[in-house]
Write a structure and sequence with these properties.
CATH architecture of the largest domain: 2-Layer Sandwich
CATH class of the largest domain: Alpha Beta
CATH topology of the largest domain: Alpha-Beta Plaits
Distance between the termini: 39 Å
Strand order of the largest sheet: 2-3-1-6-7
Oligomer: single chain
Structural class: alpha+beta
Number of domains: 3
Low-confidence stretches: none
Mean pLDDT: 82
Largest sheet: 5 strands, mixed
Radius of gyration: 31 Å
Helix content: 55-70%
Length: about 350
Amino acid sequence: MQYNETRERSAELLRIVIGHMGQHDAAFNPISYSVWYEYAAGLNERLNEALDRLRQSEPRLSDASIERLYREHIAGVDDKTMDRISRDFQQVINAVADRVQRTGEDAGAFGAELNNLSRVLSSTEDPAVLRERLQLAHQHSVGMQASAAALKAQVEASRQEIQRLRNDLHRAREEVFVDSLTRVLNRKGLDHRLEQLLRPPLAANAAHSLVMVDIDHFKQINDTHGHLVGDQVLAGMGELLRRVVNGPHQLVARYGGEEFAVVLPEASLDTAAQVAERIRHAAKAMKLRKRNAPEVVLSVTVSAGAAALQPGESANDWIARADAALYRSKQSGRDRVSLAA
């Protein structure tokens, strides 16, 4: 993110940011400042939406929550990871370049020896001289073969190393899209996958469906049992969703706070309703117990709303319709599934 605000505007934002930070439990550090700066300046719509949602269930944001917002909506691939990958890649390139240079030098020496041999063959018939030149040519030939073999081995080793670096970079990029607490996609990951899904036009008679899931009374869980227990509930919900939603190309993401999104490509609204019901029943069976004790601390329920993608519909509009169906479930008593029109 590039910050282009004037000195006067940035000074005004400083006062606003300090005011925001003072209302929360997170430390006054650069990460916290970056989050609240972009929020106050209105530079990051996704961040603002996620932060506003989170404040509904966590009125005083913790360090963990601020760091999660920063990681999901501001930070890119970890700088240290990128530096290491770039450094390793440069070493691979340098090693190949050195080997190519040495092979080129060997080839030049071999070519010069062949030229000398050609001149000797055309100018003398002395067996001793011819034998000496042929031995030298043979030695250069053996050296050239060894150099070529070394180059081939270096190129193969470099190819494997470059593949490893590509895999490292892919994992680093994927990690940016994963919520560290629930181990499902974060909001940035959801946006990325939805963009890929919606890029090709929806084919005739095809359907994609989306389920929005929200943990009922989550603020009450935080207020009664503390944020540590709340985090345990969120982590458990992530595990539950990964277990229930496991079809080909199906996705689970933490949309914000205690709300999750389930993307079901090539699935009808009826199929989405069935998946939502499985999630709802699985959530009711999830019990949180005290460590080393059979006592149940709490059980949870979820509400859900499902919507099938309409032709020409944007990702935001699709989510909004599923969210509206979720809201109807909440208004109708919670622990139920509603379908968008």
